[in-house]
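Per reviewer request, we include the raw input and output of the structure prediction for the construct analysed in the revised manuscript.
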Amino acid sequence: MTEVKAKKFLGQHFLTDDGIARRIVDSLSPESHSVIEIGPGMGVLTKFLIDRADTDFHVIEIDRESVAYLHDHYPSLHVIEGDFLRFDLSALFHESFAIIGNFPYNISSQILFRVFDCRQSVTEVVGMFQKEVAERVAAGPGSKTYGILSVLLSAFYDIEYLFTVHENVFNPPPKVKSAVIRLRRNGVQTLSCDEALFVRVVKAGFNQRRKTLRNALRSASLPVESVSVEVLAKRAEQLSTADFINLTKVIESCL
């Protein structure tokens, strides 16, 4: 299997435009001194990241041929061969760190859920995603693309849609446009509600987004029968993150 075919199989497409690669790298805050790049492939971002002064920089790559290429072309680079979704990040960084990458489209949402799980350590994310996913993450209440990741991530991160990337700068070209977004940790350390319950409420609301929240949460066996708050008559996409936090606190009081 050729390297290109291998990466395509893994859901990744090579970025071939150095100008866009530089723009992605420059979107990472200078304050991010510990950085991990996910899925570097042939190193189009890596070659710019490795020049950042005073940066503790690592890459994690699952494809063996790409790992061999990186070892050959960047012998001083710390390359981890493995799956980011299963890797113990606490073993790599003892303090906070940033994440960057041209993320494989088939696991990009899973990467963001992992970021949410590691929110106390991940201070920033700059990543290229399928445009639809990027829009979903950056969406606000009332949008049809607003969903679970929009709410969960915005509770702890300020999210910016930076720019759109067209298909012709990739090899092989994807069938969809891409986009770069940035997540920066906000000042919220903990929510004013049970965070596990908050996640459960958000997921239950959006998993049946055509239903009112009362019906959606009832289907998820959450105690809403005795709750009389106006937001339960709305659909999940109509609630802000703050609304979901307040709703969680009400439900928490009924448990």
